[in-house]
Known about the structure:
The structure is a homodimer. Chain A is mainly alpha-helical. Helices cover 65% and strands 6% of the residues of chain A. The first copy, chain A, is built from 21 helices and six strands. In chain A, the strands form two sheets. In chain A, strands 1-2-3 form a three-stranded mixed sheet.
Amino acid sequence: VTTSLSALILPDVRELIHRNDPDLLKQAIAELHPADVAEVLVCLDPQEELILFGALAGDAKVETFEHLELDDQQHLLECLSRSEVAHILDRMSSDVRADLFQYLPEQVREELFPLLAQAERNEVRRLLQHEEGTVGSIMSTEYATVGPQMSAAEAIQVLRREAPNRETIYTVYVVDEARRLVGVISLRALMVSSSKNQVGQLMNHEVISLPVDADQEEAAQMVAKYDFLALPIVDKNHRLVGIVTSDDLLDVTTEEATEDIQKGASVMPLKLGYKRAGAGLLYRRRVLWLAVLVLLNLVTSKILAEFQITLQRVISLSFFIPLLTGSGGNTGAQSATLMIRALATGEITSKEWGIILIKELGVGILLGTTLGVLAWGVGVFQSDASVGLVVGISMVVIVFLANLVGMFLPLLLYKAGVDPAVASNPLVSTITDVLGLLIYLGFATLVFLI
Amino acid sequence: VTTSLSALILPDVRELIHRNDPDLLKQAIAELHPADVAEVLVCLDPQEELILFGALAGDAKVETFEHLELDDQQHLLECLSRSEVAHILDRMSSDVRADLFQYLPEQVREELFPLLAQAERNEVRRLLQHEEGTVGSIMSTEYATVGPQMSAAEAIQVLRREAPNRETIYTVYVVDEARRLVGVISLRALMVSSSKNQVGQLMNHEVISLPVDADQEEAAQMVAKYDFLALPIVDKNHRLVGIVTSDDLLDVTTEEATEDIQKGASVMPLKLGYKRAGAGLLYRRRVLWLAVLVLLNLVTSKILAEFQITLQRVISLSFFIPLLTGSGGNTGAQSATLMIRALATGEITSKEWGIILIKELGVGILLGTTLGVLAWGVGVFQSDASVGLVVGISMVVIVFLANLVGMFLPLLLYKAGVDPAVASNPLVSTITDVLGLLIYLGFATLVFLI
């Protein structure tokens, strides 16, 4: 477990703020990483916050601001002078700035637009057009480009000059006069090459890029596969319009995983962290699916009511209902979870359902037989031989079918263009509950009543 | 959905291989990314594979080999000549090489060691000592260092010279004579600075590093927080021993998320992808928890047997068992999942249980009341007013308590040093089933029998 650096230094920073010695404070925080300063800032009182932020150097102000969460950014903007706000908005990375404008209420946004230069204003408007979840919505427009006719030495000169305003200068894109992406070269290759060589000869012509409306998860998969530092984003005319860097995608991967995990337990994605979510938000994100599942359970109580006579005749049959429905639910949840994750990471596609089916038929028979034997033992132990037999055989069939339900449901949803993660553990369990009760009580009725 | 590049080019590559024109083949594959060549390789017959691999340039051979999965690497090594194997092993990145040796059977490993130079052999042995899951097990030893007395121009010269053999030259570590880590500087800062400035003045003294036995997830969290390209790894004397790069951590993040998702549905981590896992492996990774949960369900059947008289008196009580246990399980799974994820991302720690409890008490009351009203309606509709009242009130209590069980179980496991992910959805559901039956049947007995 990490004790974060910011927690360790918080008391010292606080003491320095109250000592009223601006120079000492400035000196003390000069070498801190902006991410740590941001963590300290949010723990301070509003007045302390302004003193600490004021003690930061100009660049550090911008970088620290960029590391704040969106609501903290908004809050801080409200406390700063117009000139400071203008300075920060002007210097921010284009992608972080666009995120902020996306988050701000319409009214605040309109108040801030006049503080931006025309070029930045247009850029924000352009970036805001991209739908959430696309690479366009997370890309930055501060990429470094060179021309194919430049020499390696000239290209390095360009990069030195542009370095302070570029997201990265380590991956450099080569564009023609129409800004079409024609090549890519690393700063490393430029440095290693003889300085007279032309960029056009050194560059790789096979540039791997993504269109601006591609899914951000696809970008994360590509960067992981190709070990890129950045991925170029192009419009439909193959003109370079932005880059997505690997550190942004690390955040995307973590966020998407959190969403998938939450969906797996039928929690609608919180979007903000658990800690920031209040009880009201948590309730709203959780209650809908729970209520839907209660209504689906009308079916289970209906089935049990239908088989009332069977249950009354052999009351011990009811003892094994949680055992059988539970095992069906657990088995279905397992296979559904494996499918959903393999679909999310791009490992399988719905076309491969044939191979998957053959594998899962085998797994289902093995699991069904094992759990069937155990259930037979439980049935004999808690009741008698005939009930044990009914419980054991039902278990084999329930587990086998539940496994297939868990396998097919995500594939069908995916095929239908619906997020397969809708096949959450609770939904699969409820469906297999229905199936399980029908099999168990149907079979028991055959054995004991007919 | 991405149609991968390798699938598109496979037929063409195959045709080229069979045309028996080595130069044409070489030319055609020269600009392909090694990751794509690797994907094509594994789709070919063994003979085609060797022809394609043979047509790669020396460096491309090594890079393509590095992009293969471990079992494919082993398979390919067996088909290559000793000199080719020696060439590849010599040029591989230290972290990928160590992973391969870790994977190979003892006997194969011993056969390969003589092909390595003494220095590489020692390095492999050293890297193999680090436990799986630590940063030491994924770090690379090909980092770039400079001395604090060098000028910026001298440092850039060193980097140009060393570039071909370094994992990255964009983040440069400054070490003293004892190889202790004293600073960090980016190539960007070196390039932007005046060439005469000393590294010692330009560098950042506050280097953020991790000890060699730190958890790899911690490294991923730090890189995401600080937007690093690489993170330095130090031994207990603060000597630099390796680096972990952000692209390696992107893989770690995805793998860890997959494991967490699988654990959430009580599947033991597969370690290899779903597609590569056979039915036998899938069975073994799934059956243990399912069997344990069947045995835990001995308790539910025991409880139902104890309340036999109540169930016989009012048979309609049994209609609502799946509804109540299901809702308890779903609620518990939700809160457990939220806790486990927040603990995994480092967002909360077990110390904060007080704040979390207060929040979850509120959520539990809201959820319990909502589902209680719904359950009351279901009960009245399917049975009568008195059963409806028992079902409704039981639901309120079950949901409220299940929510707390889901919240506390991961926190307690975490506190006890056990992986909180053990509190999987199925385990939590089984525990809340027991709780739910006791509450429901206990309350019903009070109302209808006493």
